[in-house]
Amino acid sequence: HGLLNNTHLGDDTTVEVIQAGAKLVAQAAGRLGLPVVATAVAESLKDEIGKQDCLGHPVRVLKRYMPQALW
Q1: Which residues share a beta bridge with 27?
Q2: Are 7 and 20 in contact (CB under 8 A)?
Q3: What pTM was computed for the model?
Q4: Average pLDDT over residues 7-15
């Protein structure tokens, strides 16, 4: 059990947004006594972010099946 960082702003997501979310999720995880198990990243950003987020959590790549969906 643990938390997954799935920070995103749809098409406006940047690596900076994901990394800021990683820090926020890590703070919440600490308060809850849970680990952060991974950070979710869209395929389009996988090369920019690498295999780990800024805090060393593993990155899991997601494929968007409805990229034109309205948020």
Answers
A1: none
A2: yes
A3: 0.88
A4: 92
